[in-house]
Amino acid sequence: MDVAPLRALAARAAKVGHHRVWRIAVVILAGLFGGWLGLAMGGQVVTPVGPADVNLRLGPSLHGETVVNVAPLGNLAFDTHAAPLRFEARISQIRLAAAEEMFQNPEAITQIAASIGSDLRQGVIQLFVQAGVAAVTGAGLVALVLFRDWRRAAGSALTALLTFSAAGGMAFYTFTPSAVSEPRYTGLIAGAPQVVGSAEDAILRFTEYQEQLAGLVGNVSRVYEATSTLPVYEDDESTIRVLHVSDLHLNPAAWEVIESLSEQFQVDFVIDSGDLTDRGSAAEDTFADEISDLETPYVWVRGNHDSMGTQRAVEAQSNAVVLDDDIAEVGGVTIYGTGDPRFTPDQAADNPDSDEVAAIGARRVETVRDADPPVDVAVMHDPVQARAFTGEVPLVLAGKGHQRSSEVEDTGTRVLAQGSTGGAGVQGLDDDEPTPYEASVLYFDAETKRLQAWDDVTLGGVGLSSAQIERQIEEDPDREVTPPENPPVTPGSTPPTPGSPTRTPGEPD
Questions:
Q1: Which DSSP symbol is given to 188?
Q2: Buried b vs exposed e over 265-304: b needs ≥16 C-beta within 10 Å?
Q3: DSSP code, position 63
Q4: What are phi and psi of 268, to 5 degrees?
Q5: DSSP letters for 334-378
Q6: Which residue, 118, 122, 210, 327, is the most exposed by fewest CB within 10 angstroms?
Q7: Nearest CA to 57 among 142, 7, 107, 131?
Q8: Is the confidence at residue 93, as pLDDT, over 90?
Q9: Distance of CA 254 to CAs 86, 210, 401, 471, Å?
C-alpha cells in the first residue's frame, strides 16, 4: 500500500494547523495590546463627589493598588486588591459655591456626607463601564488596522473584553477594605533644595537644608494625618506614642527631624538605640546638649561609636533616661536597656567579636527575666546582642545597621531595627545616593503596653526632597511570648567595659 499520499495530507494538515494557531495567537496579542492602549487612553471619568470634581482613572498595573492623589503634595497608596489594575482618584476641581455652603450650613454638611457614598459608587460604576468600552474599542481598532479583517477584529475585541472582565472580577473578589489602615505616603515638596555639585556644596547649604527639612517633615505629617482615617490612634489616653530613632552620627539635621516628628505626632517620649556620635570624643559631647531642647523624655542606650564620655554627656541632660543594664518606667512603659559592649573607634581596645557580644546579651537576660513589673520593651544598639532577649519581652528595639527591618521571632518577640535618623552622618555624603533619614512612630496600648501599630518615616538624604510615611499594623498584638527551647550558652567571662577614645595630652577628660 502506498502511504505517500497519506503522509503528504498529514503534512499539509499540520502546516495548516500551525498557521491557524499562529493566527489565533496574533489576534490575542493584538487584543491585549489594543485593550491596554484603550484603557490607558479612555479609562477615566470625572465625577462629582460632594463639593469636588474627582478624576477617577483605571489602568493596567503590575500589582493591584488604589492611589489617592493629593497633588501637589504627593500620593497615598493602598494595597487593596490583587488584580493587575491600578485605581487612582484625584481631585481636579473644588466647586467654591458648594464648599462655602458646606462650611456655613451644618445641615449641608450632613447632606453632603450622606451623598458622598452614592456619588462615589456611581462614579466607580461609570468608570468601569467606560474603561471596559475603551478597552474593547481599542482592541477592535488596533486589530482592524493590523489585519483589515472584521472577524479578526471581533476576536481581538472579545479577548480584551474577557481579559478586562476577569481582571475586574478578580479585583472585586480580592478587594480588602482593611488595606486603608496601612497607607503609604509618597510626596515631593517642590521647595526643598536639590543636590547640585559636590558634597562640599551640599555642606555649605546645610543650614538652609536643615530648616527646609523640618518643614518637609511637618507638611508630610499634616497631610498624612489629615488623609489617614485611623481613629484608633487618635491622641487620647488609650494610646502611648513613642518615637524610635537611632544612629544620629553627629548630624545636626537629625535634631530637626526628631523635634518635628515629636511635635507632629505628639509623642510621649523618644527612644534612641545608640550611636549618637562618630568618635565618642570630648569635642563631640556638646552634641548631646540638643536633647534638653526636646519637650519629652529621651531614653538612650550607648552605641559602639559612643564612649563612656558620651554616656556621661547624655546623663547630664535633664530629660534624658540613660539605660546601661537598667530598667526604667517611662510614660507608662517598662523599658530595659543596655549599652553596646564595644567601642570601635578605639582600635587599641580589645573589643569582643559577634559571638562574644551575643553571649554578653544572653547573660544580661537575667535582669529582664526577674523584673517586676515585667519589661515591655528591650533596647540595645546591636541586633546581635538584642536577639538574646527574644522570648523574654514582647518587643526589642535596635539600630546599628543603618537599614530598617522588622521580624517576629518564633518566640513571639518582634525585633525592630531602625535605620539611621542622621542619614549615616557625614559618611552618608560619600555615596552617590545619600543614606535616607529614617525613624518610626510606635503606638502602644496604654493598658496592655503592647505594640499595636507603627509608622515608618523615610526622608530623602541630604539635599533630597522626597518623603514617605508607611503604616504597619501589628496583626496579633496580644500573642504569647515564650522563651526559646534552646537558649544561647552564656560563658562565664566578664563582659568588657567600653573605653574612651585615645586623647592627646592636655585634652580635657
A1: E
A2: bebbbbbbbbbbbbbbbbebbebbebbeebebbbbbbbbb
A3: S
A4: -85, -35
A5: EEEE---S--TT-TTS----HHHHHHHHHHHHHHHHT-SSPPSEE
A6: 118
A7: 131
A8: no
A9: 36, 9, 17, 21
Where do we find the cell 484603557?
Answer: 39
Which residue type sits at 368? V
Question: Could you tell me how many residues make up the chain?
Answer: 509
How far is it, in rounded angstroms, from Cα 141 to Cα 38?
Answer: 9
Q: How far apart are CA 333 and CA 313, in angstroms?
A: 24
Residues 6+ apart with CB under 8 A from 372: none
Q: Compute the distance between CA of residue 410 and CA of residue 254 in angstroms, rounded to an integer.
A: 34
Which of 19-23, 131-135, 217-221 bottoms out in mean pLDDT, i.e. has the lowest? 217-221
Coil vs helix vs strand at 408: strand
pLDDT digits (tens, 9 = 90+) for 57-91: 887 877 777 776 655 445 667 777 788 888 787 76
| H/E element, 203 | helix 199-204
Burial of 347 from C-beta contacts in 10 A (0-12 / 13-18 / 19+) = exposed
Which residue has 551575643 as its cell numbers? 358
Which of 456, 480, 326 minimizes the C-alpha distance to 391? 480
